[in-house]
């Protein structure tokens, strides 16, 4: 096989693997990608606002609360900030990649789909990472909030385990629902477009 044949074979393979994207298809890509970016911004700022509100609630409205109670909750909130920062650093990488013009090509879209699949797992992990915080919060509340009659060991164990089960199930359902509403339906649009381009 001479060099010209090799070049022609290479060019044929590339054209088969990388379908061209028309202007109409490019417009179809832009809409779901922009919706995803908008929802990511909304989620970032709402999470930031919730954490600030959490610090406010711990220190301002209950001045008579014991220092230990406030201190433990503050440490818990700072720990949550660290966890949230880790996951949002992953989401921010995806956020930047979505605006990359190379992502508007067929190969770019395939790479983006892979990143969406990966970030879906990050998203579920992000929600479930709040389970230990839920447990700690329950323990702090049970220990520091006065009760008319002291709770027995069985009552404490039952309360924590039942709240943990409800919280874990609730967080998992919330994560799946939230992802589907704010991201999943747009990811499906991109997947459908990829199938359409491959034909």
What descriptive keywords fit this protein?
6 helices, 199 residues, mainly alpha
Task: Give an account of the 3D structure.
This protein has 199 residues and is mainly α. The protein is built from 6 helices and no strands. It has one domain. It has helices at residues 3-17, 23-59, 67-98, 106-128, 131-144, 153-198.
Radius of gyration: 24 Å
Q: Could you give a short account of the major beta sheet? A: none
What's the shape? Answer: elongated
Number of separate structural domains: 1
Give the total of beta strands: 0
Q: Helix/strand/pairing class, anyone?
A: mainly alpha
- From N to C, what is the helix and strand string? HHHHHH
Topology, pairings included?
Blueprint: H1 3-17, H2 23-59, H3 67-98, H4 106-128, H5 131-144, H6 153-198
Helix pairs in contact: 2-3, 2-6, 3-4, 3-5, 4-6, 5-6
Question: Would you kindly provide a brief summary of this structure?
Answer:
With 199 residues, the chain is mainly α. It is built from six helices and no strands.
